[in-house]
Design a protein that fits this description.
The longest helix is centred in the middle third of the chain and has 53 residues. Helix 17 links the parallel strand 7 and strand 8. By secondary structure, the chain is α/β, with parallel strands linked by helices. The strands form two sheets. A six-stranded mixed β-sheet has the order 6-7-8-3-9-10, with helices on both faces. A four-stranded antiparallel β-sheet has the order 2-1-4-5, covered by helices on one side. Helix content is about 65%, strand content about 10%. The protein is built from 20 helices and ten strands.
């Protein structure tokens, strides 16, 4: 846990970095603050003069000079309002720009971090960091121009107070010391409580997001009450943390609100005693009282900045847990200029997932020839999906090399990987957008190519039957489509790019046997132009492969044609028998080869 001194230094460094990042906005806001501070001090002086003038009027019956003073007061009020508007509007511009820039940096870093890193983090907590913590990090910037006004007004005001009478000057010094001292005391007590509150807030967001994403499962399994209790427990933890921080703040706020009134009352009492003794004029008392009232409010904003340091420091520390994570070095090599089917070669590849005890892959070597079909077969947990991810460039092997068209994949630029390789995961993701946008996903292709890809994926019929066709809007994560329809849209998305290597991670697991057979027939027509590597638990797909790689616990146990592995490997034969029994149960209206 950071000490008060470190949190204060952290907060000050944040403010200085904000000034360096937005120098023009800050300079203009500071100019507005200077105008506001100067006209405030001038207004106090003019009020003092007008008070003395009124006293003289009462004694002489003449109003000479009051019109000029009224004109100057009006001019000062206009300038004061202009300075205030300039200060507040530009401080808002500065704060929102800083938040937008920090969010962009976070999103870029999150996009660059590997899937293994994301698997070890809660999506709800990351969402809380990108949203709440970014906003809180720059929250003190809102009060920074006001604090500048406070310091300028304090310098001018204290000078005027001491010139009027030393006792007024010491009242101003006492106000400043009380405001800053109480803010420091608050920061010391509230800092740890606020830090804990931010952590618990992220935990609550994680529970909420998980429950929302699993809404169908929760309802299907009758877990609404349990999930409600789990969310309620997290909400109670946040409530207790917020109450602990709120109790400290409940003392701070009233005191800071009372300081201006107490200060003005002190000036009036001291000034009345001085005026009765003839040490000061009535106008001096009015001038100083007005000045203290105006200075006290910006001083409160200065206190607010100090009180925000623990919150800002905690939020910024959470943001830096993401920004401070080194992203894997992006490849820069352009890769070979190649067309047609890709050639794939893995040489003694080993890969560890984050925090895993055992490697997911160990010493894996294999080759997929151009235009060939390579099937990855093995029990659950054998490393098939991990291998598919490496072939798609979603990770870097710990040892060994993954080469596509002779280029080491993790060294190549993203453009080469996305142009030559398409991945269809087992659980495809669809955005809340149209079918067309989900198929293209940023790619450029004519409508004829979209329909051709949909036909190969056996998705053209159901897409054509939708009310809007390609322009039909699908729900979040594609929930308005069935699992098999989502898989076919994802396959069309991969095919429309015309890659040289298509990686399928059990990508037809949700379609029925008839549709799967039609998809395989369509893919078979692409052999001259496409290399396919697929993790398979489907017997028809395995039987079409030129070579089968049998994996177990991340190791290549055997490789060769399907019929040879059936004869040589008992474990492989047992697994295929299980696939065959499953196929026989699920096959409908299609004669599948045995």
């Amino acid at each position: 846990m950071e000490s008060w001194g470190s949190r204060s230094r952290h907060g000050l460094r944040l403010l200085m970095s904000a000034v360096r990042a937005e120098p023009v906005s800050f300079a203009c806001a500071f100019a507005g603050s200077a105008v506001y501070a100067t006209t405030t001090v001038a207004t106090a002086w003019l009020l003092g003069r007008s008070t003395d003038q009124l006293v003289r009027i009462a004694g002489t019956g003449t109003s000479a000079g009051l019109g000029a003073i009224a004109g100057w007061l009006l001019a000062a009020a206009v300038l004061q309002a202009a300075g205030f508007v300039c200060r507040e509007s530009l401080s808002a511009v500065m704060r929102f720009r800083l938040q937008a820039d920090l969010r962009r940096r976070l999103v870029r870093r999150l996009a660059a971090l590997p899937p293994a890193w994301h698997r070890g983090r809660s999506a709800g907590d990351l969402l809380s960091i990108v949203d709440t913590d970014v906003e809180v990090t720059w929250q003190a910037v809102r009060q920074l121009p006001s604090a500048c006004s406070a310091l300028l007004m304090l310098a001018g005001g204290l000078t005027a107070m001491f010139l009027t009478h030393p006792m007024f000057g010491w009242v101003g010094v006492a106000l400043f010391v009380c405001s800053v001292g109480f803010s420091v005391a608050y920061e010391q007590r509230a800092g740890p409580r606020i830090a804990f509150q931010q952590t618990v807030r992220g935990d609550l967001a994680a529970v909420a997001l998980e429950s929302f994403e699993a809404a169908l499962l929760v309802k299907a399994m009758g877990r609404q009450r349990t999930e409600g209790e789990r969310f309620g427990a997290a909400a109670q933890r946040l409530r207790r943390a917020a109450m602990a921080a709120g109790r400290v703040r409940s003392v701070f706020d009233p005191v800071m609100e009372a300081l201006p009134s107490l200060s003005v009352l002190t000036v009036v009492l001291v000034g009345a005693h001085g005026a009765a003794a003839g040490a000061v004029q009535p106008g001096d008392v009015v001038r100083v009282a007005f000045l203290v009232a105006l200075i006290a409010l910006p001083l409160v904003s200065l206190g607010w900045i100090i009180s925000e340091f623990p919150l800002n420091a905690t939020a910024h520390a959470r943001v830096m847990t993401v920004l401070g994570t080194p992203a894997p070095s992006a490849g820069t090599e352009p890769g070979p200029v190649a067309a047609g089917p890709a050639r794939v070669r893995l040489d003694r590849v080993t890969f560890h997932h984050v925090d895993a005890r055992e490697p997911a892959l160990r010493d894996v070597s294999l080759t997929a020839e151009p235009g060939g079909w390579l099937a990855l077969v093995g029990p659950s947990g054998s490393g098939k999906s991990t291998l598919c991810g490496l072939l798609a460039g979603l990770g870097e092997p710990g040892t060994g090399t993954v080469r596509v068209d002779g280029a080491e994949l993790h060294r190549t630029a993203e453009d080469f990987r996305t142009r030559r390789i398409s991945l269809v995961p087992q659980q495809p993701f669809l955005f809340r957008d149209t079918i067309r946008a989900n198929v293209l996903l940023g790619a450029a292709a004519p409508e004829d190519d979209i329909w051709a890809a949909l036909r190969l994926a056996q998705a053209d019929e159901f897409v054509g039957a939708l009310p809007g066709g390609l322009d039909t809007l699908v729900g979040e994560r594609g929930h308005t489509l069935s699992g098999g329809q989502r898989q076919r849209i994802a396959l069309a998305r991969a095919l429309v790019r015309r890659p040289g290597l298509l990686v399928l991670d059990d990508a037809t697991s949700a379609v029925d046997a008839r549709v799967e057979a039609a998809i395989l027939e369509g893919l078979d027509t692409l052999r001259p132009d496409l290399t396919i590597v697929f993790a398979a638990s489907s017997l028809p797909a395995i039987q079409r492969a030129d070579e089968v790689v049998y994996l177990d616990r991340g190791t290549v146990v055997a490789r060769g044609p399907h019929h040879e592995l059936l004869r040589r490997r008992t474990a492989y034969a047992a697994l295929i028998s299980a696939y065959r029994r499953d196929r026989d149960r699920c096959a409908v209206d299609v004669d599948l080869p045995r």
